[in-house]
Amino acid sequence: MLFDTAHILGILLIILNQTSARECDTPLAPEQYVGTPFDHALPRSASSEVTFFKIKDPTGEFLCDSEDARADLSLLNYMSLNKDGERPDPKKLMRAVIAVHGWNRDPWNYHAALLLALAKAEAQDPAKSLGTVAVIAPYFPNGDDKGIGYPWDEDGESVADRAYSPALVWWASAWSAGAVNNYPPETKTVSSFAVLDQIVQYFGNLERFPNMRQIIVAGHSLGGQTVQRYVAVGKTRQELGVTVPVDYWIGDPNSFVWLNETRPFPVDACSDFDNYREGFTGYEAYGAEHTGQPMNYNLELVSQGSEAIIKNFQDKPVHWARATRDLGDHPDDGCGPYTQGKDRNERFFAFIRQFPPSCTSQSAEACDTVDFVDASHDAPALFADESGLARLFHDNFYGRGQYAPDYGHPRQMGFDDPRPDGGRLGEPLLGADEGVYAGQMKHRGCWSDVDRAQTERTLSELVYDGPENTRAFCTATCAESWFKIAAVSGSRCYCGNQLDRQAVEVPPSSCTTKCPGDAAQVCGGDTRLNVFGQDAFV
Ligand SMILES: *[C@@H]1O[C@H](CO)[C@@H](O)[C@H](O)[C@H]1NC(C)=O
């Protein structure tokens, strides 16, 4: 039997629910300052207050009845105050900077670091101040934050009793990928991406903020991963009904959601390389094993496939910040990230090689930038760098489309300079070596070798392993035996006539090991080779 009574009742209930959502007289509106406060023990931050943002159930199921506890959803966040320690005048605000914290879930640190950077921007131009720029750092807590970030009653009989507050909480780090919340347990409908949407819509409301000119959604580290994924699947500002430009700042993510199934590195050793969060396989199921609820965010877009997702990503202005001393990796994310590169640095260059940042649009708003910063994995350093000040505070401040060119030289690879600095065009790339070596070999860049993704040697012929290794000695040794290609890695020298099919060119910053025979030269790196050849390899 196709329809039993329970089915029909269920369908009726769904219809009734949808009808009531649509016919809502006074729908709950997402709004800063009117969320229901709850107890917490989080640190205070100077020039800011802890506020509670009312979040609307994005499914609309609990939209109408504010008496219904299931509609009472509250997001704690850090919000800037003006120089008098008061809430900023909405009419004076020209910019909103929304910053997503990292793995440690410490929005107060990000907020404080952004306020320090804003003070620096104000010293450069007094128009940018706590009076004109709103800085908001939302809090995406998880189960480790019980009793600290939100109330928790250990003695409660049910999960609902224990998680009795309206605080939105996510499972582990699932907020970094748009999963729905875990608590309050009666209303598991709120994707972290819907939260970002609602904050963007709030600040993009010109009735409330008539002089708002620019919204920035920023994130570093796991926050950078969050923003990168949010750019990929996130609704456009047009879909959100926002006319204010929305730009995205992404600093040093550990891994990316790859926009299609083609990976730069071999996938042979990683059968689930395309699983969401690193790809889009299983997007809808993401998080469901922990919350019991599947993803509900922008399924329409994801179901259209990679071309639609790539377009969604590339239509948005993205400002990349790459700390050049951050060659780190967060090794607990499975094998997927290694099919993108061996560390944060390589994954970044591989991503922008495959999905190039562009500045081709007529509108300055749609212009991507790529900034290099001399820093380690350090959000405050990136925020306070000249590039951070430009992207976060100065660029397009008056809505006139003024953006600074890309910061950080030397550049590394040909595709990493979407908004070049005219005064520095033609400067050599990092690691450039114009030398002509024995056998007419020239430097052909830094390349991968056997690592956590690659299983075959890039050049199989190891001709020596010794303290005399230099670029000149290795190329001469290979040329003597009529090889066309030479490669150095530490004390090792390899020869061959063809690179293995698994070999991938990586950024020059991946080759950092000094040659044992000449400390002024670089000889590859850990699982990385500087390659020399008569011909260039494509
Ligand atoms: C993925 O995107 C890249 C760059 O646009 C393209 O070269 C490649 O063919 C695409 N792969 C698939 C499977 O569509």
UniProtKB/TrEMBL annotation:
Annotated WSC domain residues: 440-535
Secretion signal span: 1-21
Keyword Signal (UniProt): yes
SMART domains associated with the record: WSC (SM00321)
Alphabetized UniProt keyword annotations: Signal
Descriptive protein name: WSC domain-containing protein
Organism ancestry: Eukaryota, Fungi, Dikarya, Ascomycota, Pezizomycotina
